[in-house]
Amino acid sequence: VQLQASGGGLVQAGGSLRLSCAASGRTFSRYDMGWFRQAPGKEREFVAAIGRSGGTAYYADSVKGRFTISRDNAKNTGYLQMNSLKPEDTALYYCAAGPRVTIWRGKNSEYDYWGQGTQVTVSS
């Protein structure tokens, strides 16, 4: 499956953005989906994940209560709604998909397919 992330941009602290992840090539509903991010000089870190049916979601503590992951399998698209953004949320955000992911683990090695990343910059 091919993934295309979009929706990043520059926003002031406290603002909101919605990232999208468009999937093509294979049946999107067969894959669990996750979002990861990587800031300059730091390792890629888990942000959120959602099960293939959309019924189960899991979040990193750093974003819990501010970010919401969702998906629309009919549109082959996943989303990450980001509210109350902070400067420390600045990073390149990636979406990923895998057929057998334990979503609460947040391990990037469990994801087989990755999008190209979309930049999110939060100014203070």
Write a concise keyword list for the protein shown above.
seven-stranded mixed β-sheet; four-stranded antiparallel β-sheet; globular; single chain; mainly beta; 124 residues
Furnish the topology, listing elements before pairings.
Elements: E1 2-6, E2 9-12, E3 17-24, E4 32-38, E5 45-50, E6 57-59, E7 67-72, E8 77-82, E9 91-98, E10 113-114, E11 118-123
Parallel strand pairs: 2-11
Antiparallel strand pairs: 1-3, 3-8, 4-5, 4-9, 5-6, 7-8, 9-10, 9-11
Structure overview:
The protein is an all-beta fold and 124 residues long. The chain is 0% helix and 49% strand. The chain has strands at residues 2-6, 9-12, 17-24, 32-38, 45-50, 57-59, 67-72, 77-82, 91-98, 113-114, 118-123. Strands 2, 4, 5, 6, 9, 10 and 11 form a 7-stranded mixed sheet that branches. A hairpin with a 4-residue loop joins strand 7 (67-72) and strand 8. The mean pLDDT is 96.
How far apart, in Å, are the first and last alpha carbons?
A: 37 Å
- Summarize model confidence as the mean pLDDT: 96
Unreliable spans are none
Shape: globular
Order of helices and strands: EEEEEEEEEEE
Helicity, in percent?
Answer: under 10%
Largest sheet: 7 strands, mixed
Rg from Cα: 13 Å
Number of helical elements:
0
What proportion of the residues form beta strands (DSSP E)? over 45%
Secondary structure category: mainly beta
In short:
This protein has 124 residues and is mainly β. Helix content is 0%, strand content 49%. Strands 2, 4, 5, 6, 9, 10 and 11 form a 7-stranded mixed β-sheet that branches. The chain has a 4-stranded antiparallel β-sheet with strand order 1-3-8-7, with no helix packed on it.
